[in-house]
Amino acid sequence: MGAATPLGHGDGAKRPMATMAGMSVVTQRAGHLEAGSPTGIIHTEALTKVYPRADFAAVDHLDLDVRAGEIFGLLGPNGAGKTTTAGILTTRVVPTSGRAFVGGIDVAAHPALAKQLSGIVSQQNTLDRQLTVWENLYFHGRLFGMGAATSRRIATELLEQFQLDRWAKASVYALSGGMAQRLMVARAIFHRPAVLFLDEPTAGLDPQSRLALWEILQRLNAEGQTILLTTHYMEEADKLCDRVAIMDHGRILALDTPADLKRALGTDTIATVRAVGDLDALSEVLTREVEGVTRARVSEGAVQLQFSGRHRVVPDIVLAADRHGFDLIDVSVAEPTLETVFISLTGRELRD
Amino acid sequence: MAVVTTEETGSTAARHIEVHLRPVVAASYTALGALLLRDLRVLWKDKWIFVTRTLIQPFLLCFVFLYVFPKIGQGVGGHGPGGESAFATVLVPGVVGISIMFQGVQSIALNMAQEFGFTREIEDRVQAPCPIWLVALAKVLSGAAQGVISAAIVLPIADVVHAAGVHAHLDLHWWVVLTMVPAACIAMASLGLVLGTSFQPRNIGLMFGFIILPITFLGGTYYSWTTLAPVKIGGFSWLQTLVLLNPLIYVNEGMRAAFTSFDHMHLYVVYPVVIGFAAVLLALGLRNFRRRVLS
Predict the structure, then answer these.
(1) Does the distance separating the beta carbons of B127 and A118 come in below 8 Å?
(2) What is the pLDDT of residues B120-177, one digit of tens each?
């Protein structure tokens, strides 16, 4: 796993243990150390969740390591197990078997302790409707054990930083969707969590708010914040994440940087050819006569061709189609995306 | 507070993480304080709504039964100020008891059904760095505190709202007041927790129809339990036996013992049963809460 985080090694591990004096976690954690496994700030071992009355595993023997300081994405369609995985890590879902650690703390065994380490932005707006914008932050600080003066100061600073200071005294009902989301991020990082969890953070946001949120997350990450997010937007995973785990049916199908995931396809170029007539025949012709086709499939009224080692493929496609009398409507060329990776792994579209 | 400091170590870019954790007990203690502080803040913001909401029902009960009825010669408790005053003495503690119950329902059951439902606020609240049950317990404590406040502002109502000549004979037994009122408030707040965690928001109407109404009408607000014996089938005082299932009966009898010298159920029955209801309802509510939150 490359440069894994030496969490719980050497001197660094002894101090936190001392601050947890008297807790059973210490022995639990020491035991974990003896195994000698260099693990990430998030670490799971054969993590499995079978919901009651379900005959399949929502999360199926998941082994995951997230490094400190990275933005890690769980990408997959609805029902892939992303939200369940995040739910276990944030102590809301009780795993059926396997183990999960955040910052070295076993989240199932010590949920109250693990919650100190997590900041959470959920899919829905969970702001306190009876408090003002500023009070939402202030009471979060108090909840996490900060004094009144400190909470007051940080609440005011964060509102400025997130450009919400104009709304400090407003009811949270007055906030737009994008602003409410920003406030939830500000609240989640208030207590400086080891990991910031975001579950489908931009679902339902307008494009402008989505971009603004991406910028915020990148800035936080630049300051060292580890972020785990779930998403079914391939673009979001591609643009934002250092590493992406592609999930389906509770399992990880592939895990790497977006660039390496795409590189592993062995595809540089994707051509989408729309034409009149027998598309299967066209697909066969193009595969045979155009150089470098690694994969072809017919979907949604078009032939999709993947190429390896080629970039300027349009003239060849047009000539080959012309030779066999096909009437082309449109030829477009693109680089592979994580969607392409998902399709080649599962044979399905991401948004099925 | 968890503070993670990261430092780059040379070209490997490996990061050392220091995770400073506070012991769960200390973190839970401050979290409980913050949860209560938050509820107090909201209560202060809504103080006039709270007072109005608390007083409206007791006011109407006293107005109809102790003012209008005697005025139109329909007084309850027999004709003349003597009988009507005796009824007032029964009714006033009952009005305090029912107010305590409604406080539990309103401050906990209705809020919680909403927070579990469309506002989803509970999702954030349970991320507090403490055990999940403590979040529910904080709700019960602040709900019970609101019950105590409402008991204190409801009692004087009876002294103000009545027809001439109709007087409730109040006689405060302070030891009973100071112990029974808090115990009753915790029991009723726990009832609110059970209801709030058992009913989906869309079924709140059902909760009022099937649970709240029977509890209030058969809870000994308008009559004392000791006087129910004549309601018989054959030789069996069936109503007096049946209402023993109702927690409000004990609360109201406790209020009668606290605020009047009227006949009431023996205190050595009332205390253990009120405390027992509090313990059972609280345990059930905390279990329900945990189940609703975790999956």
Answers:
(1) yes
(2) 888 888 999 999 999 999 999 999 999 999 889 888 887 778 777 788 888 888 998 9
The pLDDT, as a whole number, for residue B79 is: 64
Q: Cα separation of B126 and B142, whole Å?
A: 16
The whole-angstrom distance between B286's CA and the closest CA on chain A is: 16
Q: Is residue A231 within 8 Å of A58, Cβ to Cβ?
A: no
Given a contact cutoff of 8 angstroms between Cβ atoms, the answer to whether B180 and B254 are in contact is yes
pTM over 0.90: no
Residue with tokens 């477009």: A332
The verdict on a CB contact (< 8 Å) between A145 and B121 is no
The stretch A37-65 carries a mean pLDDT of 87
Report pLDDT digits (tens) over A309-324.
777 888 888 888 888 8
Residue B33 to residue A142, Cβ atoms within 8 A: yes
The DSSP H or E segment spanning A255 is strand A251-256
If we measure between CA atoms, which residue out of A260, A257, A253 comes closest to residue A241?
Answer: A257
- For the record, the structure tokens of A68 come out as 């400190």
Which residues are CB-neighbours of A293 under 8 A, at least 6 positions away? A286, A287, A305, A306, A307
Structural domains of chain A in order of their starting residue, each with its CATH number: 10-127+175-261 (3.40.50.300), 266-335 (3.30.70.100)
Going by pLDDT thresholds of 50, 70 and 90, the confidence category of residue A9 is very low
- The domain locations on chain B are 24-293
Question: Measured in Å, how far apart are chain A's first and last C-alpha atoms?
Answer: 31
- Given CA atoms A156, A159, A162, A165 in this order, what sign does their dihedral have? negative
Summary mean pLDDT of chain B: 85
Max intra-chain CA distance, chain B:
97
What is the pLDDT at residue B18? 55
**By the 8 A CB rule, do A220 and A112 touch?**
no
Sequence-ordered alpha helix ranges (H) in A192-326: 207-222, 234-240, 258-263, 279-289, 314-323
Tokens standing for residue A37: 């496994």
Nearest CA in chain A to B46: A130
